[in-house]
Design brief:
single chain, about 200 residues, alpha/beta, Maf protein, binds thymidine-5'-triphosphate
Amino acid sequence: MKKQRIILASTSPRRRELIATLGLPFEVRPSHTPEDTPEDYTPQQIVEELAYRKAKTVYDSYDSELAGTIVVGSDTIVVLDGEVLGKPKDEQDAYRMLSSLQGRTHEVYTGVTSISGEDGRVITQHRRTKVKMKQLSPDAIHAYIRTGEPSDKAGAYAIQGLGATFVDSIEGCYFNVVGLPLSLLSEQLSELGLNVLSIDE
Ligand SMILES: Cc1cn([C@H]2C[C@H](O)[C@@H](COP(=O)(O)OP(=O)(O)OP(=O)(O)O)O2)c(=O)[nH]c1=O
């Protein structure tokens, strides 16, 4: 069987760590794409469109042979009462996001696109995870922002970091919250001919 590998179209260190856990050969190519979408897009349309855009940009610009590779892109947003929360613009924005999320349940959407280098076949899907956050005092929110953790995270928190202490419970895939739902990704890879548990060395 032909050797297969993944090209992860991402600048995110979390996604790199997560994909590494699959134990497959992979390389990372940053995908710098515009993240604007039409006003009337639903959360699932947003994350699916952006995941596709990231993967397609890297796929189109790849300068070597793509046969035997699968290009993967993904995008994560937090949604509270229909409002989409991306990454905070600054500390004030992070404070606004965290004070609206505390004591409530929100949804995290991640879109994932896999493109086969073999035949250009594209699979785009998303997962949704519900996250219930504890009540937080303004002091706790300020202290958390001072750690710097919120700055590059959708919704201004990281469930895999200190933000874990704010999370009461989740319903759905944990890895979806961190930015790459591994079970969904493994299904896509398998659909495109790359079986995570039976890779040829
Ligand atoms: C809610 C949450 C988000 N995040 C992160 C995952 C994503 O990296 C980030 C959302 O931004 P994205 O735009 O999805 O990704 P990115 O810009 O970091 O990386 P890429 O190059 O792949 O586009 O928020 C966490 O790390 N932990 C969390 O608990």
